[in-house]
Structure prediction request, 188 residues.
Amino acid sequence: MRLGRWVPYGAGMSTVRRMTEADVPAVSAIRVTGWKTAYAGIVPQSYLDAMTVEADTRRRLKRFRTPRERVTDLVAADAHGRVVGWACLGPDRDAGAPTTTGELYTLYVLPSLIGSGIGRTLLEAAHTHAPAEGFGSMLLWVLKDNTRARRFYERAGYVADGAVRTDDYDGVPVPEVRYRRALLRTDR
Prediction:
């Protein structure tokens, strides 16, 4: 996988690399602030208010220390080494899914840097890495009412495939829609 691609944003630069255990607190901060920003008005406020960076860091450290086959965490770091974005991909988690289908589990950027190109760079890095894990296509789930994220993925070539599921947040059902995209082969 070709990591280390530089993308300008503001006064700094960003590069993508594999996540390390030392990155976990920064990734948790990005995830929690990302949820509180992107999902306000979509997910119950009580659920968002209960989220803490500390609790997320504990869960994420446990996950990070548990090997997961074909799962890759990537981070975008600025010119000072500060983690400013995170993406995680691996096999499609749906039962009976083909082993050639990957899933983008998550992609978050510091809310203050949304629109800077970091998310696009992380997504391109995930697409570059996916074929090395045997994935010829990718899917992802997006909250139905998260129109900003839906537009982002649609611009990247993802298409809603009609699948819908609902997750429960503090007793409130929140629908998600599934998107798919074929990947270009890089072995030719």
User: Anything to note?
Assistant: Confidence is low (pLDDT under 50) at residues 4-11.
